[in-house]
């Protein structure tokens, strides 16, 4: 998978590509080399993708907690996607990976970055993707509107 992704990245003009066997090696590499975008697999050696992203986002000695992360996996169940999202993954790409899919996700990372938020138990990109066109208020969930209405009703 690393070889395939490397070839796809080279085909679209990416020149500086660094590879790691697992999340632990990736964290060490990121301490030595500035990395613009991280592409990680869900399943890796000793330190898997979700654990890697949690450390990248939350560890006090993280080399870059704001690095955009694209997770690639063949395990695209809703639970896995939610686990990745809750760890702080920016984008998710399922296998089999296509050049078009890779370019689309990378373009989203670059052209549509999401703001980072910090709250109890989470630090990473804002997990809420959709904002109503005319909405200008602070609340974004249906439950927020219900609790506001019941507090003032």
Which helices and strands, and how do they pair?
Layout: H1 2-11, H2 23-32, E1 38-41, H3 49-58, E2 69-73, H4 78-87, E3 91-94, H5 99-111, E4 116-119, E5 122-125, H6 142-152
Parallel strand pairs: 1-2, 2-3
Antiparallel strand pairs: 4-5
Helix pairs in contact: 2-3
Please tell me about this protein's structure.
This protein is of the alpha/beta class and 153 residues long. It has a single domain (2-152), classed as Response regulator (Rossmann fold, 3-Layer(aba) Sandwich). Helices cover 42% and strands 14% of the residues. It has helices spanning 2-11, 23-32, 49-58, 78-87, 99-111, 142-152, and strands spanning 38-41, 69-73, 91-94, 116-119, 122-125. The strands form 2 sheets. Strands 1-2-3 form a 3-stranded parallel beta sheet, sandwiched between helices. Strands 4-5 form a two-stranded antiparallel sheet. The longest helix has 13 residues, at 99-111.
Mean pLDDT: 87
- How much of the sequence is in beta strands? 5-15%
Overall strand count = 5
Total number of domains: 1
CATH superfamily: Response regulator
Order of helices and strands: HHEHEHEHEEH
Helix content: 40-55%
Largest sheet: 3 strands, parallel
CATH topology (level 3) name: Rossmann fold
Structural class assignment: alpha/beta
Backbone shape: globular
Q: Provide a count of the helices.
A: 6
Please list the strands of the largest sheet in the order they lie side by side: 1-2-3
The radius of gyration over CA amounts to 17 Å
CATH architecture classification: 3-Layer(aba) Sandwich
CATH class: Alpha Beta
């Amino acid at each position: 998978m690393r070889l395939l992704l490397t070839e796809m990245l080279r085909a679209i003009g990416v020149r500086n590509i660094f590879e790691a066997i697992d999340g632990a090696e990736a964290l060490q590499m990121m301490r030595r080399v500035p990395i613009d975008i991280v592409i990680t697999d869900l399943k890796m050696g000793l330190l898997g993708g979700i654990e890697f992203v949690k450390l990248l986002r939350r560890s006090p000695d993280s080399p870059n907690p704001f690095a955009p992360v694209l997770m690639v996996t063949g395990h695209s169940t809703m639970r896995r996607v939610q686990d990745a999202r809750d760890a702080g993954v920016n984008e998710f790409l399922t296998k089999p990976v296509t050049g078009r899919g890779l370019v689309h996700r990378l373009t989203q990372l670059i052209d549509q970055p999401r703001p980072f938020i910090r709250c109890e138990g989470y630090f990473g990109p804002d997990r809420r993707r959709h904002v109503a066109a005319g909405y200008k208020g602070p609340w974004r969930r249906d439950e927020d509107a219900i609790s506001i209405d019941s507090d003032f009703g």
